[in-house]
Task: structure prediction
Amino acid sequence: MVNKKLNWNLIIILSFIALIRPIMSMLGISDIIGQPFASIAATICITIIWILTVLIKQDPQPIQTLLAVGIGYGILVILVSGILSPILAGQLQGPLTNPLAMISVLTTNAIWGLFAGGIASILMKIKK
Result:
């Protein structure tokens, strides 16, 4: 196992890039494009961006990096939901109202990051 520090700047940037999915939903763009296509397409595009970024950066720990990105995105989604739901809906909604939902959000996005990191790792090995 490689014993190097994670690139936290990269992790934060990639976590914020993934916020395009909930922003598309909040702005009604996903409804205009059509569900579930919009969410699936956004997820695929974000995953490709994550993978290409760690490949271009030649990140020595793509699995750990993208796992951290998935968790970081999950934390951001929970926070954004907690901030915006009272403003947009008039009351707190979303994962902050249910601890099990928070665990679900974090777990789902950690798996997403782990999956993307696994693909990136395989591609890096093939590239060598």
